[in-house]
Design brief:
The complex is a heterodimer. Chain A contains nine helices and two strands; from the N terminus they run H-H-H-H-H-H-H-E-E-H-H. Chain A is an all-alpha fold. Chain A has a domain of 142 residues. In chain A, strand 1 and strand 2 form a beta hairpin. Classes of the chains: A mainly alpha, B mainly alpha.
Chain lengths: 204, 198
């Protein structure tokens, strides 16, 4: 059991990280990363939906007819996303407005369908929930990394707090292309570290 | 919130160039990255997305204004939109199979992929948030679809040209695709002075 849990954690956070290794869930991950607080809220929503829909689908896995399973998965995910959306609208109306359609777009986030299809549909509820939780944390980790660079260089702040020294802001970091470049760099570095560990570590 | 008075033609142009679905809104990235290594396949998918986005946006507009709002079902809107998309994709597939087997051969394999394409749901959600009128919705969805087609065709053409190019290790595949997309997005920023809508 513990070994199983360890594999799930290691796989989701690093070896098969949803964003950098499987290139899933890119849509939302790039759009919200110009401010760290937005990314944090977004990742929390995704992690919540992933963990709970993993749990629910795994509970129901023996009762869902295989032919319509995609539709059933989507509806279960949509139910949790509506939950997230309502909470955000009530508690954090400012951020909810800034995220705009991207909260609703968690439904079509490929990470969710991918994890449900690959893991929750075949495994026990508890471990499926953990799998969803850590896939969400792997997503959070990459999102926060990109958001940190974009907010730091683009606005000179971290979580909205000024960093304390002045420098010329990189306006490009606020614009969409920077998100593509940063993601490419993250993928590049991580692939290299994975391919030849010791050498890449020494040069990094 | 945009004012309902914007000229639909402006929205159409803006949806193609200045607020391109992929390059500024990052929608539909999954299939954009994975189905872009061949030009022919990519344009097939792009055309299918354009067609589905227009049909689904128009029907969702009707659903939203004639069913969801009068019945106060706003909290269920995501589920309703998803069902509308899935149903329409299914119907389009059957209709194509029946009336135009040629087109079905070309676009058929892409239709199931489209159900989970973020761009389709994204267009509908933008339509709701910005409170577009019927004409605005029609031209916005058509423009967004064309913009998506344009971006994936450009990317696929570039990727085909550089298929045999040597790249730094670790950058092959998704890495270089994102860099190409980034450069394309930079180029599209050049359009931003043209029309200012959003």
């Amino acid at each position: 059991m513990t070994k199983e849990v360890k594999t799930v954690i290691y796989r989701n956070l690093w070896k098969d990280n949803p964003i950098i290794r499987q290139i899933l869930g890119i849509c939302s991950s790039l759009a919200v990363t110009n401010l760290m607080i937005n990314s944090l809220v977004m990742s929390a929503g995704v992690t919540f939906a992933l963990a709970l829909s993993g749990f629910t689908i795994s509970l129901l896995r023996n009762y869902i007819p295989p032919r319509i399973r995609m539709m059933v998965f989507t509806l279960i995910i949509a139910a949790y996303v509506i939950f997230v959306d309502i909470i955000l609208k009530a508690q954090l109306p400012e951020i909810s407005k800034a995220l705009g359609p991207y909260v609703g777009l968690i439904i079509t986030n490929c990470i969710l369908m991918g994890r449900m299809e690959a893991f929750a549909a075949k495994n026990k509820p508890f471990i499926s929930m953990l799998d969803g939780l850590f896939a969400g944390l792997g997503y959070t980790f990459i999102l926060m990394l990109i958001a940190f660079v974009r907010e730091f260089l683009g606005f000179g702040t971290i979580f909205g707090v000024p960093v304390g020294f002045e420098f010329t802001k990189w306006t490009i970091m606020v614009t969409p292309p920077a998100a593509f470049f940063l993601l490419a760099i993250v993928i590049w570095i991580s692939t290299n570290i994975m391919n030849k560990r010791p050498k890449a570590k020494a040069s990094a | 919130m945009s004012s309902p008075a914007i000229n639909p033609i402006l929205i159409f142009v803006a949806a193609i160039f200045t607020s391109n679905m992929i390059l500024t809104n990052f929608l539909g990235m999954c299939s954009y990255i994975s189905v872009s290594s061949e030009y022919k396949t990519a344009s097939g998918l792009g055309k299918a997305v354009t067609m589905v986005s227009v049909v689904t946006a128009v029907i969702s507009w009707m659903m939203y204004h004639w069913v969801i709002v009068p019945l106060k079902l706003e909290y269920l809107q995501y589920i309703i939109f998803i069902i509308v998309i899935a149903a329409i994709v299914q119907i389009i597939e059957m209709a194509l199979d029946r009336f135009s087997p040629d087109l079905h051969m070309k676009l058929g394999i892409f239709l199931p992929l489209i159900t989970v394409n973020c761009a389709i749901l994204g267009i509908i959600l933008f339509m709701v948030i910005r409170q577009y009128s019927f004409m605005q919705t029609l031209l916005f969805s058509f423009g967004s679809g064309l913009g998506w087609l344009l971006a994936i065709q450009a990317l696929a053409a570039i990727r085909e040209k550089m298929a045999k190019t040597k790249l730094p290790p670790g950058l092959e595949g998704p890495g270089i695709t994102f860099i190409i997309t980034g450069i394309m997005a930079l180029a599209f920023i050049g359009f931003s002075g043209m029309v200012a809508v959003q």
